[in-house]
Amino acid sequence: MAQMPIANIQWTTVCSESDLIPNLGVCALVDGVQVALFKVDDRIYALDNHDPFSEANVISRGLVGDLEGRLVVASPIYKQHFELSTGQCLEDETVALNAYPVEVVDQKVQVSLASVTVEAA
After folding, report:
1. What is the pLDDT of residue 116?
2. What are the residue ranges spanned by the domains of the chain?
3. What CATH fold (topology level) applies to the domain 16-111?
4. What is the pLDDT of residues 26-70, one digit of tens each?
5. Distance between CA atoms of 87 and 81, rounded to whole angstroms?
6. Proportion of the chain above pLDDT 70, given as a percent
7. Distance from CA of residue 29 to its chain's centroid?
8. Residues 6 or more apart from 51 whose CB is under 8 A from it?
């Protein structure tokens, strides 16, 4: 399912949409930043791959699920849950991953680092 393009943002093509397996993460390098990509229910999410609790680049290896009605990824190290749409940590409201805009153009997944969805409190 194509997502609507966001104007005035620099996009980087990272892979084909068919490269993404539903409910599994993959890491992409976007302008030197590791970004974790997840395809869930025909929507693609992009978060920082860096886990602030373990200081390891592992978020793309986390498990995707639903926690109290929120779509999340659980870090594979200490199991904190991060909301896919915002990057907000559910266990610590002062911590959030950057959540990046994603668009699909001609079956190519594009990510932008130009703006983030949420900042930690």
Report:
1. 53
2. 16-111
3. Rieske Iron-sulfur Protein (2.102.10)
4. 999 999 999 999 999 999 999 999 999 999 999 999 999 999 899
5. 9
6. 88
7. 12
8. 57, 58, 59, 75, 77, 78, 80
